[in-house]
Design a protein that fits this description.
Layout (H helix, E strand, L loop, with lengths): L1 H11 L4 H8 L3 H9 L1 H9 L4 H6 L9 H16 L6 H14 L10 H10 L4 H4 L11 H15 L6 E9 L9 H8 L10 E8 L9 E4 L16 E4 L7 H7 L6 E5 L8 H7 L3 E5 L5 H4 L6 H18 L5 H10 L2 H13 L3 H6 L23 H9 L8 H8 L13 H9 L20 H15 L7 H23 L4 E2 L5 E2 L1
Parallel strand pairs: 1-5, 3-4, 5-6
Antiparallel strand pairs: 1-2, 2-3, 7-8
Helix pairs in contact: 2-3, 6-7, 6-21, 11-16, 15-17, 15-19, 22-23
């Protein structure tokens, strides 16, 4: 399995199947099979507790009692993330309980042989079974800060090569409870938007100079509002429960070069050994579970600022409506996942280098200068209240409603800790959701090239007369207008369009 992962990594870096077959002394067809089984291999690797299991395993052997094995794997991963010591007898005792809940075979015995095979299948290290403390188990935040400081000095890491990634849940349609739209929502039978959520993964370096595009996890694999959309400003993927999991994490991570990645000990994050196997340039450090929220940079205002900026986007979008109570009610019904993607990307883009750099104050105590950040809207709700007063149907909203609204998903960590019954329930409802829509209304047909040309032409004439006009944005509008013009001519002549290697569209 270790060599299969190495082959996949080398294929990603451009090595040919022929050269890899020669290097590993295997047939080219074997390399092709490995490439075709990428998802199964990576899914298997993501569930390994360490690289030990991958080094000794040759095949992805299926457990005799598959449901029990999945349930125990989920339970063990969650316990590991909570830093709870786990012994062999405890695993066996839990397996008997899970087997009963699953109504498994009555003659099942959680024997030492079953335990050995379970550990082998999931690459569980012996030291963890003995109840030793897990990776990154340090006694306090100060101890971790000292360890981190010594590590970055020894390895020669700088601000631009140290990253922190963290996921969070976002209630992307929720409006203040006292707004007209929310009243209508609760009155409308069977129509609930306030609990519609997505999971967002944020990641940036300590210098604040590189933000990875947001990973946005929705429920629908092919939302109707994405029809004919060629590109989005976020990386979108789907998962039936809209939670992050280790497979999605491995498919997402795209940092290149020698970097240090700081993660919390969530059950959705693969072990450091597994990540290092996939890319040897990765170094990974895990925050101790008991101090993560107090020192993890993304938890030091970054995610909170992002969510506030997202919700300001929602209010400003409401102001673009017709300005009637009817339009406000219709807004919450018409808002779709595509709008969410654009507003989230815009909010993430508006976070400044200063915002991101200052989030490392509590962790990075080496010679890093932090700027005095101006008082932000984290403690200033005037902007929200002012926007409330401009929107029909939001007149009853005040400071308390703003605080309540902004905190609606503050405790949504982006992944789920399940009890035994919830684990069983998740297994019984494991069928994937291939729904093609996340909204009840149809998607209107997109504008034609002629309509787009006319719109860009009007936009150019308007923008060049504005005080905010700048050459860069003006040229961008011109290029978009020219692209629409070329496609309009091509559609008229029924001549196919091709793109040159500079990305410009030509006849």
């Amino acid at each position: 399995m270790e060599q299969k992962i190495e082959i996949l990594t080398k294929l990603d870096k451009g090595e040919t199947s022929v050269s890899l077959a020669r290097f590993y002394n295997i047939g080219k067809a074997t390399v092709t099979d490995i490439k075709n089984n990428r998802h199964a291999i990576m899914d298997f690797a993501s569930k390994m507790d360490s690289s030990d299991g991958i080094k000794t395993r040759k095949v992805m052997k299926i457990a005799k009692y598959q449901d029990l094995d999945k349930a125990m794997e989920m339970w063990f991963t969650q316990k590991r993330s909570l830093n709870e010591p786990i012994s062999g007898p405890l695993i066996c005792e839990k397996a008997l309980e899970m087997n009963t809940k699953l109504k498994g075979p009555e003659d099942f015995k959680a024997s030492s042989g079953w335990l050995h095979k379970f550990k082998s299948r999931h690459g569980i290290r012996e030291l963890q079974i003995q109840g030793e403390l897990l990776s990154a188990d340090l006694s306090s935040a100060e101890n971790f800060k000292q360890t981190f400081q010594l590590f970055v000095e020894k390895e020669g890491y700088f601000q631009d090569s140290v990253y922190n990634a963290d996921e969070t849940g976002l209630n992307w349609k929720a409006l203040p409870r006292k707004s007209l739209a929310s009243f209508q929502e609760h009155a409308a039978r069977g129509y609930k938007v306030s609990k519609e959520r997505v999971t967002i993964m944020t990641c940036a370096n300590a210098a604040g100079t590189h933000k990875l595009p947001l990973l946005l996890i929705g429920k629908s694999k092919k939302p109707r509002c994405f029809k004919n959309i060629k590109s989005l400003p976020v990386t979108y993927t789907a998962q039936k429960n809209v939670w992050m999991d280790s497979k999605l994490f491995l498919n997402w991570i795209i940092i290149t070069g020698k970097v240090l990645l700081l993660l919390d000990n969530a059950p959705t994050h693969p072990s450091a050994e597994v990540l290092n196997l996939i890319d040897p340039d990765y170094q990974v450090m895990f925050f101790p579970p008991n101090v993560t929220s107090s020192i993890q940079p993304m938890d030091q205002g970054v995610i909170e600022k992002f969510k506030r900026m997202y919700r300001k986007q929602m209010l400003r979008r409401l102001l673009l409506n017709e300005g009637t109570e009817e339009s406000v009610v219709a807004f919450s019904k018409l808002l779709n996942l595509k709008h969410c993607c654009y507003m989230a990307a815009d909010a993430w883009d508006n976070l400044t280098e200063e915002n991101l750099r200052n989030a490392w104050k509590k962790l990075w105590v080496v010679s890093v200068e932090f700027e005095a950040e101006e008082e932000t809207d984290l403690n200033n709700l005037d902007d929200f209240v002012d926007l409330f007063n401009e929107i029909p149907g939001f007149n009853d909203c005040n400071y308390d409603d703003a605080v309540d609204w902004l905190a609606t998903d503050v405790n949504d960590q982006g992944y789920q800790i399940l009890d035994s019954d919830e684990i069983i329930s998740s297994l019984r409802n494991e069928e994937s959701d291939d729904s093609s829509s996340d909204e009840s209304m149809g998607t209107p047909k997109g504008p034609t090239s002629a309509e787009a040309f006319a719109a860009f032409e009007t936009g150019l004439e308007w923008f060049e007369k504005q005080a905010e006009c700048c050459p860069t944005q003006l040229l961008l509008l011109k290029r978009l207008r020219d692209l629409a013009a070329e496609k309009r001519v091509a559609a008229h002549r029924a001549v196919p369009i091709s793109s040159d290697n500079r990305g410009s569209t030509v006849l």
